[in-house]
Amino acid sequence: MSYYVVSVEPRREDRFMAMAAKHLSPEVARFHWPRRKLTIRRRGRREEALAPVFPGYVFVEADALTEEVYRTTKRLPGFYRFLESNDRIRALSGDDLELVAHFVRFGDVIGKSLVTFDEHSRIEVAEGPLAGLEGRIVKVDRRKQRAKVRLDLYQETFLVDFGFEVLLPSSSPPPEN
After folding, report:
1. Pick the CATH number of 2-166 from 2.60.120.260, 3.30.70.940, 3.40.50.1390, 3.40.50.1000
2. Where does residue 154 fall: left (phi above 0), alpha (psi -120 to 50 degrees), or beta otherwise?
3. 11: left (phi over 0), alpha (psi -120 to 50) or beta
4. For 85, how many CA atoms within 13 A lie in the half-sphere containing its CB?
5. Which pTM value belongs to this model?
6. ∠104-110-13 over CA atoms, to 5°?
7. What CA–CA distance (Å, rounded) separates 128 from 118?
8. Which of the residues in the chain have pLDDT under 70?
9. What residues contact residue 12 under an 8 Å CB cut-off, 6+ apart?
């Protein structure tokens, strides 16, 4: 399977996805819009919220980008263009393909990672979507339980916050007197 990137109207990705599901069967092409789960404080209360991993981008998974998929996708409301361009549509490859496949593996909604911190306060990912992305983490906010990660796609850089939960050691050393 190959993945193609579609640039769509930001904050309207959900509408685009609904229309794509109506017009194209999953046997022909599957559309992916990875979102991440974050905990947000509003007025002193914590709420779960969803935010796109790549705002304004949707991914098409297909054996090949057929004429039917191309024409149908172009006609959907909110469509801007295929990447690299409508004239030079290129399937993802290399690092770009690995990155998108990494997030698609977690489903439509990417949950929080389980992490620990070593004695030097460096983050260590035990499991979850941050696993394998440790080298891309540029900032950690322990209070908000978020890690800011640098993601590159088609020579464009995105800084994206991912939520995490801290695993406490199962047995801690006894306190010293």
Report:
1. 3.30.70.940
2. left
3. left
4. 2
5. 0.87
6. 70
7. 18
8. 169-177
9. 77, 78
